[in-house]
């Protein structure tokens, strides 16, 4: 039977799925009927819970289309930094240093926690990276690079790491692209090395070697740092 308590419970369950990234920003969530069936409640209860989340801006309802995840969770935490970083290139080393700490841990956890579905997704992206590299498509290769790092964060199964990763990496890529052609120049000059690093990282995660995954990730970011910020040496991170 429905009621306020049940609606609240279903609302919290859907919130948890949003926080854990079950559905990505911009993705259409399952229908009321499908959610009701999976949650074991009436469609009216699901509808009431969805209406609460729409009212809070976490979901967006589109007429005759469905309900979609908004980008509020992804951008709300870190959006004020976008303009700051755009106006202050000297902040880039700080961002790279943060990535060095963040993504080393992310890679470690991905090697421990990745599910079969996570591994399949990363495998697809690695295949795409190899194909894009062979075709000389640096734009696609750069996009898949970012997607691969996002997939790693998802495979860590840590909600905070995933949200921070998505925000920081997106912001860094936007900053580099807006302020100079560094990312594409780096791709053209050192694409063989970067691809080899991604393949080595993928192998460490696929074979469940967390310490090796962390080491390779730090090596990869250190290499990118050296190329983008040659006058600001990467630190030794414990």
UniProtKB/TrEMBL annotation:
Top-rank lineage group of the source organism: Bacteria
Domain HTH gntR-type span(s) in chain numbering: 4-72
PANTHER family: PYRUVATE DEHYDROGENASE COMPLEX REPRESSOR, TRANSCRIPTIONAL REGULATOR, GNTR FAMILY
Cited SUPFAM superfamilies: GntR ligand-binding domain-like (SSF48008), Winged helix' DNA-binding domain (SSF46785)
Keyword entries, A-Z: DNA-binding, Repressor, Transcription, Transcription regulation
Record-linked SMART domains: FCD, HTH_GNTR
CDD domains: WHTH_GntR
Protein name per the record: Pyruvate dehydrogenase complex repressor
Purpose of the protein: Transcriptional repressor for the pyruvate dehydrogenase complex genes aceEF and lpd.
N-terminal signal peptide: none
Matching Gene3D superfamilies: GntR ligand-binding domain-like, Winged helix-like DNA-binding domain superfamily/Winged helix DNA-binding domain
Keyword Signal (UniProt): no
This protein's record includes keyword Isomerase: no
Gene Ontology MF, one: DNA binding
């Amino acid at each position: 039977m429905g009621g306020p308590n049940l609606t609240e419970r279903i609302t919290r369950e859907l919130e948890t799925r949003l926080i854990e990234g079950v559905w990505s920003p911009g993705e259409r969530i399952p229908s009321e009927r499908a959610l009701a069936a999976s949650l074991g409640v009436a469609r009216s209860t699901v509808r009431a819970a969805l209406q609460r989340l729409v009212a809070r801006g976490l979901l967006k309802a589109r007429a005759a289309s469905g309900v979609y995840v908004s980008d509020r969770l992804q951008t709300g935490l870190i959006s004020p930094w976008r303009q700051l970083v755009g106006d202050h290139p000297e902040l880039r080393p700080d961002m790279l240093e943060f990535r060095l700490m963040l993504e080393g841990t992310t890679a470690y956890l991905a090697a421990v926690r990745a599910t079969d579905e996570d591994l399949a997704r990363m495998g697809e992206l690695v295949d795409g990276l190899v194909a894009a590299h062979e075709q000389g498509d640096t734009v696609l290769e750069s996009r898949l690079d970012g997607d691969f790092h996002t997939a790693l964060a998802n495979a860590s199964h840590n909600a905070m790491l995933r949200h921070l990763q998505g925000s920081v990496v997106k912001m860094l890529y936007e900053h580099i692209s807006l302020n100079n052609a560094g990312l594409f120049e780096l791709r053209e000059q050192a694409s063989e090395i970067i691809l080899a690093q991604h393949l080595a990282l993928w192998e460490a995660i696929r074979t469940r070697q967390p310490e090796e995954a962390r080491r390779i990730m730090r090596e990869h970011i250190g290499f990118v740092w050296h190329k983008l910020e040659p006058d600001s040496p990467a630190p030794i991170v414990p």
